[in-house]
């Protein structure tokens, strides 16, 4: 099971009115606005809180293919939504449920939406039982398939049309679409389309890129063995990044295979990745996002594992561009490739906690300013420690990243990242007196304790193996500090969506008049 799209309720912008849902038709139309994309093969649960039924937490979970897993998935869905809401000090009193699956072959496919409706009915019943066990009433439960919706709560033939009701398309003018747009909500396309944009290229380009990645190993090893060692290799990565960014800013759409391979290798070092994360200013975001997508698509077989850093960078820039929906989907892919990639975990955790990226951005800007002010000061130097307000300590002794390989021949099972709790990364703890450096140098304390030990440095990969996640850093401290502040304040984020109480009506799925 993959549960990769948890959201919290965004605060309405000044002067914006809440969006009100007046029935199941509005529910179906509002779904892509709630998530930021059009879900597919998904269970979506929206918590409703308080007497006014304000929108609370939202979770999206893949529908398991095997019906034998549905009962477990339903229980997990109910638990996740309740936990999410309780983290915000508000328990849901009711829930809106969506089961989204298109017929095989598309809306006009041979399976037909009616077959989807019949197939998913037991899952809807399992979800209703699971939420009832959590003392959360099901306000409405919809099947959305083939551009139409049906209510699982219909009691008779006169309730819903047998052929369903068309879902108003997002591009069609309607009061709800106008209100959602005015409230700053906008879908970014389908989840399938977002994921498809992350796929590696195919032949003949894939063969050229594969050979370039294979050939890039020996020169990189010579760089590391040269007079400047790791620092010189990082500077070379930074030079290539600057060249690539300038070209993409000018409209370029690709790089040659050799430079692409060297960049992908250089980004495996957390110091090289940190330099890439500095391209975060408003006038840099569009070019940076196109560059990270280009690099992601060049992580061809058997080098797919090299995609974790550019995926995380794409998520970072998407978040900065106010596209948290894409950021979540991309981070889910990064954690699928490498479940212990610390920076992806921390960004995911921050998104799911409803934090804004400004605290992290301030840290990135400060490090960039410090480096540009004195190019001779490296992130590992004592002077950099003093400039950043951190205790002076010996630099870490981990070796630089090895040349790329195809990864382990028999990788372990993929760990589901899950949306509710980002699991602490496993690895060695920092030794007394040791100072981690770079984008993830320090972890701020949790509200009730010091927090888990940082993960192993990505640059300390075993010979021939995949690099592991890097330890935490200044942006992580900013995330943790903001979470502590919000936890202590016990503030409830105002809802952007409000569901009006239903009037007594023969149509059981009416959510208002």
From TrEMBL:
Lineage of the species this protein comes from: Bacteria, Bacillati, Actinomycetota, Actinomycetes, Kitasatosporales
Positions with biased composition (Pro residues): 392-416
UniProt-listed InterPro entries: DUF4192 (IPR025447)
Compositionally biased intervals (Low complexity): 375-388, 454-479
Coiled coil stretches, renumbered: none
Region called Disordered, residue ranges: 370-513
Protein name according to UniProt: DUF4192 domain-containing protein
Record field: compositional bias (Basic residues): 500-513
